[in-house]
Amino acid sequence: MTPLIEVKDIGKTYGSVIALRDVSAVVNAGEVTCVLGDNGAGKSTLIKVLAGVHRHDQGQFLVEGEEIAFSSPREALDRGIATVYQDLAVVPLMSVWRNFFLGSEPTVGFGPFKFLDRRKGREITRTALAEMGIDLRDVEQPVGTLSGGERQCVAIARAVHFGAKVLILDEPTAALGVKQAGVVLKYVAQARDRGLGVVLITHNPHHAYPVGDRFLLLKRGRALGCYEKSEISLEELTRQMAGGAELEALAHELRGVAG
């Protein structure tokens, strides 16, 4: 099976700053690849390369087996790579259904006599959300009245509806409580089960492990390792994320100081 996305020894520098170095990973259809790391680990740079915001300057970036270097996010979107950023591209005062389309609204009429087809827009939005298992009371309500988790779910459903093959989610659970985070992870699993390849960026191994199939650990722009779920436990993933060896060395040092 050809991966939807594969990066081989990919790298990116900004002047003299090395943001990414020799990072390799794959994203398969119907799987979740989790990218974990603390702030400054290189997660944002990797997203920007995959999403077409920045061009990599080292290694190979393959989309469905074809080597590629995107020059804009539009190109990535045209290849089926949709990115949902942490700050969500939504207009809070606009209705849920208008946010769902945001520039691609259905219309009726021709030429200068084109009008928004509100009824069709509402129906499509309601159906697309229902297919993802999202039950909203009213798609006319402003998107700003939704909870953070519900907004994330609308953004995920939007990407799925508009034909995304790969869904990149930038810290979708970062600002959410336990219950809301659980809701978002449920929809991540739904997107995976519909055959999408999902890239889940997070610094929380407890959110990544239940839905992840593969885990790429980044630290200061380099890969600490890439593991299949069968190769690593949640405890070991958490230990590596927390810098287990460094913490042990620090604990040893502190014991020495105390002694």
From TrEMBL:
SUPFAM superfamilies per the record? Answer: P-loop containing nucleoside triphosphate hydrolases (SSF52540)
Q: Does the keyword Heme apply?
A: no
Tell me which CDD domains the record gives: ABC_Carb_Monos_I (cd03216)
Q: Which residues cross the membrane?
A: none
* Pfam families found in the cross-reference section: ABC_tran
- The signal sequence is none
Tell me where in this chain the ABC transporter domain is found: 5-245
UniProt cross-references to InterPro entries, sorted A to Z: AAA+_ATPase (IPR003593), ABC_carbohydrate_import_ATPase (IPR050107), ABC_transporter-like_ATP-bd (IPR003439), ABC_transporter-like_CS (IPR017871), P-loop_NTPase (IPR027417)
A single MF term (Gene Ontology): ATP binding
Q: Report keywords, A-Z.
A: ATP-binding, Nucleotide-binding
Q: Does the keyword ATP-binding apply?
A: yes
Q: What is this protein called?
A: Monosaccharide ABC transporter ATP-binding protein (CUT2 family)
Q: Tell me which species this is from.
A: Saccharothrix variisporea
